[in-house]
Automatic annotation (TrEMBL):
<dbReference type="InterPro" id="IPR004038">
    <property type="entry name" value="Ribosomal_eL8/eL30/eS12/Gad45"/>
</dbReference>
<keyword id="KW-0687">Ribonucleoprotein</keyword>
<keyword id="KW-0689">Ribosomal protein</keyword>
<dbReference type="GO" id="GO:0005840">
    <property type="term" value="C:ribosome"/>
</dbReference>
<dbReference type="Pfam" id="PF01248">
    <property type="entry name" value="Ribosomal_L7Ae"/>
</dbReference>
<dbReference type="InterPro" id="IPR029064">
    <property type="entry name" value="Ribosomal_eL30-like_sf"/>
</dbReference>
<protein>
    <submittedName>
        <fullName>Ribosomal protein hs6-type (S12 l30 l7a)</fullName>
    </submittedName>
</protein>
<feature type="domain" description="Ribosomal protein eL8/eL30/eS12/Gadd45">
    <location>
        <begin position="7"/>
        <end position="94"/>
    </location>
</feature>
Length: 101
C-alpha cells in the first residue's frame, strides 16, 4: 500500500469515527476555534480557497495536506467537499507521519 492510499484510508476511517469536519465553512471555524489538528485541501481547489485555507492554517499552526484531488478526497471521505479538517490529534499525527515519510 502506498503512503497516499494509507492516508486516504485513514481519512475514511476518521469520518466513520466522527473525527472529521467536511466543508469550507465548518473547517474554517474549526481552524479558528483550534479544534482542527490537520486540514486537507484539494489540489484542484480554486486559488482563492486554497490561499485562504493555507494562510489561515499557517496563522493557527495547523498542518495542511494538499496532495489529493477533489475526486480522491471525495472517494475516501464519502462527501463532495473541497476541504476537510481532522479534529483528532492521533489521526492527524498518523496522517502527517505517513505523508512525510
Amino acid at each position: 500500500m502506498t503512503p497516499n492510499e494509507a492516508c486516504l484510508n485513514l481519512l475514511g476511517l476518521s469520518r466513520r469515527a466522527k473525527k472529521q469536519i467536511a466543508g469550507e465553512g465548518l473547517s474554517l471555524a474549526a481552524i479558528r476555534n483550534q479544534s482542527a489538528k490537520l486540514v486537507f485541501i484539494a489540489s484542484d481547489a480554486g486559488p482563492t480557497t486554497a490561499k485562504k485555507f493555507h494562510d489561515k492554517a499557517q496563522s493557527y499552526d495547523v498542518p495542511v495536506i494538499d496532495t489529493f484531488t477533489k475526486a480522491e478526497l471525495n472517494a475516501a471521505a464519502g462527501n463532495k467537499r473541497t476541504v476537510y479538517a481532522i479534529t483528532d490529534r492521533g489521526f492527524a499525527d498518523k496522517m502527517v507521519a505517513i505523508m512525510t515519510n
